[in-house]
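go over both lines:
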Amino acid sequence: MLSVAAPIAMALLLDRLLGEPRRLHPLVGFGHAANLLEKTLNVGRNRIARGLLAWALLVLPLPLALFWLLAQLPVLAAAAVSVAVLYFTLGRQSLLEHTRPIGAALLAGDLPQARVLAGRIVSRDLRDADEAAVTRAAAESLLENGHDAVFGALFWFAVGGAPAALAFRLANTLDAMWGYRNARFERFGKVAARADDVLGFVPARLTALAYALAGHTRLALHCWRTQAPQWDSPNAGPVMAAGAGALAIRLGGAATYHGQLEMRPSLGDGATPAAADIARAARLLDRALLLWLLLVIPL
């Protein structure tokens, strides 16, 4: 029987070498199916029940089918399929490819281009953002999605193999699509949001701990303890507070969403973020990932 460490290492290597598939990414097709089902079911009464039905129809069949398939295959074939599935759930290389150009544009003094690039990965309005605001957006996205697109998938793979990692990633994708507190999704997306909170609870805290150990540990743990409870998301709060503390920079604060200024809680402590901190956040993620790999080697 192959260890957990071997397929994880191979999937991470594939992600490093190949990056995100440019065409026919399974999650893109999943997103199209989710949009179609949402338009069909997010109508009329009983929106919470309809959202539960939509979530179950989208999240459960593929992992269950994968579980059955792996049980039928020879060991090496099952391992190869597991590596491929885990590769499709990972997004470390994609995170770096989307955030590095933002830092490069800022370092080159091209703030307008940096705003455009950052606007592609966050939902906030950055049209009038200064360098610090653009850096905050990129660093927050990198730290939070480090959990969503890397550590969360690895955790569930270690716990339940490829079917569990796939289920986590599908549930996380639905939360990103439906987990909004607005008139359209407040009720329909409630199950998607709560399911993501539950599935991400343990891996988010392990991610926060890894960030803390990989950076300014005492400051990161202090920020996690004192700032995370103020954040709306029970999982993003610990991850970003610990990450900001580990980097000794200030994240969070005011941001504009859909024309409305939101005063978000502060995260971290220390210097105002600058362009070079985007690369520092990426290195923090990689150091934390190395810690995780050292932990799974014996498994």
